[in-house]
Each structure stands twice: as structure tokens, then as C-alpha cells.
Amino acid sequence: MTYRVVVIPGDGIGPEVVAAALGVLRKAAAKGGVNIEYEHCLAGGAALDQCGEPLPAATVAAAKAADAVLLGAVGGPKWDGVAPHLRAEKAILGLRKALGLYANLRPVRVWDALAPHSPLKAEAVAGADILIVRELSGGIYYGARKEAHVADAPDEAWDTEIYTAPEIERIVRVACRAARLRRKRVTSVDKANVLATSRLWRTVAERTAAAFPDVRLDHLYVDNCAMQLVLAPKNFDVIVTGNLFGDILSDEAAVLAGSIGLLPSASLGDGPGLYEPIHGSAPDIAGQGVANPIGCILSAAMLLRHSLDAKAAADAIEQAVEAVLAEGYRTADLYRPGLTRLSTEEMARRIEEEI
Ligand code: NAD
Ligand code: IPM
Ligand code: MN
């Protein structure tokens, strides 16, 4: 059979890291006997420029009909001034909604070769292995919001956070199932000392996890969690949290790994999955060929594993990444004297050769 993958390069470094990941995906798929047909689609600022809207209906239709979507990143200063409904970021929020992607898996792995280079103490981060399970289709991202003006000047604004018990139940179930395949611990993160949505979250998390007696559930307030993540990252196994907290904590957790350019993600629902690095379009380094493509390359590995049932090909990519890092190859974000500095493209080619 032939799988169909929609490819959305997006903006800034998006097209650079997607080109790199596609080379690696092609190599791993060919070697593993996985047949893939690719369709390139527009979204984000690139789509706004070409079609007048950040998420064209054709892109949504192609994504819905595909087996999986690989996305680079969207957004950038060029489009920061547009009306809220035209913002490049709307593309990604719209795609997540249209595909029903409620479970965002963000694995944070500290590769042995990188622990000594962490801004944190090597002994604190070496061996840390965390899976952040971020609720992706609800919460304050999708509640009603308002930006009111007085005499043409912005004057008052509000956003609302809504969570329902079924939304919390299904994401906590994803976390508990994932924990069963790992170290069987789930930390639920909320702000239940202040927020009503968080009190509901905690109650429903307790109730849901009770059906997984082999999994140990504990709770942390998000402010404490932010501290514990850098203080004692090895104490975490699976973290489950809402949309906004998961967004923030995963960028923080990227520091453990060494660079945000390393972190992949899978967004899953009941249909096709969407795979993207957790970083953005990095306008400060776009167009220079220096972006780290590993987050996007590992997203392609997650795509093979979760959407194309191709575990061996996914493993091959992850092993190649580990080997290339162990051999001292680095993009600019992780380069240190004595190691070998590679461009985005060179890093991708090195990983392809390793597969
Ligand atoms: P960012 O993640 O783009 O960049 C933050 C910092 O990390 C920058 O210094 C950047 O150079 C660095 N960085 C990011 N990816 C890197 C990589 N692969 N290799 C090396 N360094 C890397 O976050 P930002 O600057 O806050 O956002 C820029 C734009 O991206 C904004 O428009 C934002 O809305 C958008 N964004 C999009 C997504 C997405 O499409 N999923 C995610 C986050 C941010
Ligand atoms: C991410 C990004 C997005 C988010 C933005 C671009 C809407 O930061 O994927 O982490 O906040 O979810
Ligand atoms: Mn983010």
C-alpha cells in the first residue's frame, strides 16, 4: 500500500527543516520498504501571501484525506500586524481543530552526547527522559476572547478557559496509557489553587487514573513544576497538562535536551496525525542554513511510528540521530570547539548516510 503524507513547510526556518526531514524520511522509508506519496500544501504566512488566508480550505481538505501531516513552523514578524483572524498562527490552531488533534505528545530526551553541554549541570540532566502530554484542542486557546477598543485604541481584552470532564478524561487516559509503556508515573500539572478549570482537571485526573491501578498519579502546581523541571528533571516520567501550560513547559524542557531545535511532537486524534518540531519559525536565524533540523527529523520518525505503523523505520531514524550526535556533529545551536559544525542540510545528509 501507499501512504499519503501532506507536507506543510510554512514560514521562516520551516521550509529549511522540512526539506531536511523529508530527505531523512525518504531514506528511512525506502530502506524500510514503506511507500509514501507526498503532497505539498500552503499554510501560515506563506498561504496568507499567496491566497489571502492563513489556512486555505484546500490544505484542510488535503490534510483530512491524508494518513499524516508533516509541518515545519508558521508565523513571523512580517505577519504580526495583521488582523487576529488572519494571523499565521491561526493556521496551526485551525488545522489542530479541523483534524480533532487533542493529544500532543512532546518527548524530551537528553541524548548522552549532549548532557555535558547543557546549561544545567550534566549530572542533573543526564538520563532525563520525559514525555509531556499536552491537551491540544481546548482550554484558553479555544475559549471565547474579546479585544475591545475605545476611540480606536485597544482598551480592554479577555480570554476564557473552558475544560469539560470528557476532554480531561481522554487526555489523562492517553497519559496513563503512555506511562504504562514507560516508568508508570504520571504527574498532572495545574493551577488548582486559583483556577476553576484546574480544580476540575485535578478531580477528573484522579477519577480517570483510578482505572490504571498500576500507574502512579501525582499532582503539581504549574509554578512548582516549572522549577522542578530544571531542578530535578529525572523525577519526571509523563507530565499531563492543559494546552497553555503544556506549551510553556515544553519550551522550558527543551533546555534539558540542549536546544529547542531538537524537540519533536506528534499531535493525535481519531484521524490523521500532525507531526511538527515544537519550535517556531525562528525569524532570527531563518534563511541562513543554520537551523537545527533534528526536531523536525524526529517528528518524521514519530510520523512513521504513530501514523504509518513503521516502527523499524522510526527506530532507524532515532538511532541515526543518536549516532551522529555521539560522533560530535552539531548545528550552530549546539556547536562547541573541538566538535564538527554542520549546516542544516549537511546535518540531514549525515543522518541519511547513517541510516
Ligand atoms: P521560536 O521557537 O521560533 O524561536 C525561539 C528561539 O529558539 C530563537 O532564538 C530561535 O532562533 C531558536 N530556535 C528555534 N528553532 C530552532 C532550531 N530549529 N534550530 C536552532 N535554533 C532554533 O519562537 P519565537 O521566536 O517565539 O516565535 C517565532 C515565530 O514562530 C512566531 O511568529 C511564533 O508565533 C511562531 N511559532 C510557531 C510555531 C509553530 O508553527 N508550531 C511554534 C512556536 C512559535
Ligand atoms: C506550539 C506553538 C503554537 C502553540 C502557536 C504557534 C500557536 O507555540 O506549537 O508550541 O502555542 O500551540
Ligand atoms: Mn509553543
UniProtKB/TrEMBL annotation:
Residues reported in the UniProt entry to bind substrate: 96, 106, 134, 223
Catalytic reaction(s) noted? (2R,3S)-3-isopropylmalate + NAD(+) = 4-methyl-2-oxopentanoate + CO2 + NADH
> From which domain of life does this come?
Bacteria
Q: Which Pfam families match?
A: Iso_dh
Q: Name one GO molecular function term.
A: 3-isopropylmalate dehydrogenase activity
Function, please?
A: Catalyzes the oxidation of 3-carboxy-2-hydroxy-4-methylpentanoate (3-isopropylmalate) to 3-carboxy-4-methyl-2-oxopentanoate. The product decarboxylates to 4-methyl-2 oxopentanoate.
- Which of UniProt's keywords are assigned here? Amino-acid biosynthesis, Branched-chain amino acid biosynthesis, Cytoplasm, Leucine biosynthesis, Magnesium, Manganese, Metal-binding, NAD, Oxidoreductase
The record ties this protein, via NCBIfam families, to: leuB
The encoding gene: leuB
Name used for this protein in its record: 3-isopropylmalate dehydrogenase
The entry's free-text remark on the cofactor is: Binds 1 Mg(2+) or Mn(2+) ion per subunit.
Compartments, record wording: Cytoplasm
Q: Where are the transmembrane segments?
A: none
Site residues, Important for catalysis = 141, 191
What pathway is this protein a component of? Amino-acid biosynthesis; L-leucine biosynthesis; L-leucine from 3-methyl-2-oxobutanoate: step 3/4
Quaternary structure, per UniProt, is: Homodimer.
What are its GO cellular component terms?
Answer: cytosol
- Outline the extent of the Isopropylmalate dehydrogenase-like domain: 4-351
Annotated residues that bind Mg(2+) are located at 223, 247, 251
- Enumerate the Gene Ontology biological process terms: L-leucine biosynthetic process
| Residues holding NAD(+) | 280-292
- The principal localisation class reads cytoplasm
Names of required cofactors: Mg(2+); Mn(2+)
EC numbers for this chain: 1.1.1.85
